Amino acid sequence: MGLTTHIDAAGIAHVTLARPERHNAFDEALIATLEDTFRTLGTDPAVRAIVLSGEGKSFCAGADVNWMRRAADFTPEQNQQDALKLSDMLATINACPKPVIARVHGAVSGGGGGLVACADMVVAEEGTTFRLSEVRLGLTPATISPFVIAKIGASHARRLFLTAEPFGPEMAQRIGLSHETAIDRDAAQAQITVWLSHLQAAAPGAVADAKALVATISGERITDTLRTETPTRAAARRPSPEAPGGLRAFLEKRAPAWNRLD
Q: Which residue stretches of 201-223 are H helix?
């Protein structure tokens, strides 16, 4: 259904948007398959990280025009359900306990920007064109807005949601939508390899907890309640099977059990 998935020997899941003839644009089937795939991978103990990319000339050009044509005849209730499905898919990726790395190139428009916003690490190839394009179509980026605003902040969203102007990987990196810029696909893959090496050296359970911690704490004021809750989280990790093993490995100057690269 427009998606391929492969898990390699190191436990890295490679998820590829595979509708190159449509610039990997979303339709109902791709949205459903993405949600199911990330839900499954997120609970698979063999998976250490997920790398998301796109076939062909573009990473993801937003909504498929044929899907949009069909939606024009939907009832208000059908439109509500359709938008919720897209939101549910993005939320599943955003909350996936596994680290999600996106390699983006070509066109990244509309909902494609929402997909990028849900990744933990993003490398963009030079020549990538980002565009939060909804207002050009008489729409608003409402469904993707919680994820995009959480990533780039209100100030940048106020500009880019309203103008729908195109911007490149350098600006995407500057505003926090992406993290690194690569001159080509090989350089992008080299950056992903570096990130994966760091992730393989980290305890998978601790990584999942750290990701959940960011989601919980982000945007919160530093109150006495918050300062009480965060040490509780830290204390809860200490008796986990990973923590004693990791400490022993550190003291004995050897790789911990979860590091498959050593």
A: 204-217
